[in-house]
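Tutorial handout. Part one gives the primary structure; part two gives the three-dimensional structure as tokens.
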Amino acid sequence: MNIWDKCREAYRQGGFSYLMEKIWHKLRGTGSGNLYEHEQLAEAPAYSAWLAARRPSEAERAKQRAARFPQEPLFSIVVPVYNTKPPYLTALVQSIQAQTYGKWELILADGASPEPATRSCLQSLAQTDNRLHIEWLPANEGISGNTNRGIAAARGDYVVFSDHDDLWEPDALYEIVWAINATGAECVYTDEDKLRGDTAVYYEPHRKPDYSPETLRSCNFVCHLMAVSRPVLDKAGCLDSRFDGSQDHELTLRIWDVTDKVAHVPKVLYHWRQFSQSMSKRHLEQCQAAGRLAVQEHLARRGLTGEVTQDCGYRVHYDVPPGAKVSVILYVPDTDVDLLAAVSALREKTAHPALEFLLPGPSSPSKAPEGVRFLPAKAGESPGAFRNRAAREAAGDYLLFLDPRLTPLNSGWLTELLMFAQQPAVGAVGGKLLCPGGQKIFATNYCLRPGAVVREFDGHSVHRLGEAARELLARNVTAQPEQMLLLKKSDFTAVGGFDEGYRRHLGDVDLCLRLTALGRRHIYTPFAVMEFLSPAEDAPAGATADYERLRHQWPDAGHDPYCQPSWRDETED
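Part two.
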């Protein structure tokens, strides 16, 4: 594509303003990540207003200070310090002193800072609060070593990790202690955003998913603010300096290896100060190498085999037995599709060899090519009913429900799905579905919203990053669309297959929710990509009645543990 074609494509995607942004960032030599940050900064005023509207009032803070809990742990806040600028260090300490929950100690572990202003600031701050303790280390042991010295001095029931130049919201510890009492969590984390350098500009909120083990293998979405019980930390072990640059990610992986009592506070309570010369920007390759090693060692501890490579985040290539048999059930109602041509195309574009196909069609087996079985569709039969019949006939260990209008864009698409589906705790797995032409996303997964079920990234350009780049990461999701859904036949049978009461819509969501109740987690992987050859209908007939059935059967279906609404979509209470 030449420069003029690229300009026309940019204009088609986002209009003149987007075209100008692309040209500006191209001239500056910046990539998509920089463009994403630029877009987030442009929204900073609106986001700041949203954030301010959700901060507790002084009256609410007074109630928090007076609140009592059955369990009131002492929090040891551990902060490694090295040549921190006094204004940043002072701002951090003041934001902790403003906490509405007061049972905390702050341990500032100074790694022999040579800067006199830093040492003087620490001495002055120590005089302001008897809960503040300075650990004067004889030498700088790096971020992990300095933090570990602080942990060794901690007396608290929970250890809380913080950087030396960031800011906390005043209700951060209150919300964490509330979560501990409500859930018995041994590890708690909160949402966060970014704070630009010396400014008061808040931007790029990271509204995180709940406990998501597979997502954590793709990226460190937990990051700040995290609190972990002392017994769990002692069992997991302290920070390991081999992983400096990704030391917090590596520690979180080890913590989650020893506990799944994890709670997420879905509120922005931590502000991560950003500089152009931060560790992650100056030593990106070092940080990424440390992160890959952290995930690789985590896999070994979990008894999983596979190779970790670098993509947008970390990509795990799990080993998949080539003989794992997959029964592909091709079906879409009321659509004229040449199913045998679809089978031929799928075989040609699929590297995994062990396949059989089950299709609606004539009952005579003599008309079926090798590896293909026809099942006569019955009049008035719901999609779920046909798929259930096909699943009962299937010989494979895995069932793949697939829309025959889809064509693979990479030959390893099925192997990518099987990587996750073979794992005992995983239920439904799906990939990235593109609209005809391959420039827009049809769906990555479903998100549950009050009054609606939406396809995440529906209509999103494949050329632009979404929030937290979720469309580019293998991650946990609540439900997968039936257009491409792989799972173990044993799991499908255990939950009774599709509910045939759903006539045209949302039977896939209901199936995934029942699998969740069975203890399974669902996965979206961006590395299994398919494109529709013809448009798929957005709202099939009967969708309203099907949604009412889903809402009746699953009263909490308006809350999605893995996909918070965007702050842009929320209005003030």
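Part three, for discussion. The CA atoms of residues 208 and 221 lie 7 Å apart. Residues 69-308 form a domain with the Spore Coat Polysaccharide Biosynthesis Protein SpsA; Chain A fold (CATH 3.90.550.10).
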